[in-house]
């Protein structure tokens, strides 16, 4: 009996109704959201890696896209036909790392579109440790239906006024769930990449039809070994084009911010960036 219960606990995120069924996902992993130190810059120590920005401010601009405040980063060519939809973590487009990473993807030749998923109500980088901050209330203000609506209208505007022909999406933590949801048949994404996704349920992995690449962190408690294996088993059974990488000593959030003086963590962050670029070079360029 005990063994069975433990097994059930392991499989729970994929097989049972989640504790917060009203949200459609389990909010528990959020307590693992971005532990550790904040870094403001995407780093590259390696001179041969030219795509990644170092010590600078973001260089894109904000515009209304489909009625949503959106950060846009253009490639050198200014062409918009091949684009990346950037779905942020809970810190939103207001967090400079999320704009620098968008700028870095633009340097790799992509038009990057990063909507404000939270209508000006992101979680501040110093708010997670604040005992007066109510995460449950914040989640209730930004349910999946609201995020879905923003992603849908952004995709429509990209394919409309912005002249986009192919759309890849990146999603970090919170945003990863929506990469999965919009890789389903007819939802509008041609390929996707997610790093340390949170709150993705089995049905969402199952419905994916277009190529998906995932960067997992060994220390990310929101993707346990059992959960990673379950996701891979699903991709194998649905026979989609997929890739999963597991980075050692990498925590939840590592692809957006981490301790860059730690060589393993710096490696994980840079590799996740290049993993995404290679993926889109292969499947949407
Ligand atoms: C970034 O912007 C701030 C404020 O606009 C400015 O003071 C600073 O010099 C800029 N840094 C770089 C590296 O451009
Ligand atoms: C946090 O927000 C939830 C949902 O609005 C509410 O039920 C709960 O009482 C709040 N908790 C605190 C400590 O205020
Ligand atoms: C899986 O997909 C590949 C092409 O992507 C195809 O060649 C193969 O037949 C498929 N396998 C099954 C079992 O459908
Ligand atoms: C960052 O990593 C370095 C090298 O491993 C370590 O000495 C330092 O304590 C770490 N900083 C934090 C805040 O964890």
TrEMBL record:
A molecular-function term among this protein's GO annotations: hydrolase activity
Keywords: Signal
Pfam families membership: DLH (PF01738)
Database matches in InterPro entries: AB_hydrolase_fold (IPR029058), Dienelactn_hydro (IPR002925)
Top-rank taxon: Eukaryota
Signal sequence interval, chain numbering: 1-17
Domain Dienelactone hydrolase: 68-282
Record's protein name: Dienelactone hydrolase domain-containing protein
Species annotation: Cadophora malorum
Origin organism lineage: Eukaryota, Fungi, Dikarya, Ascomycota, Pezizomycotina
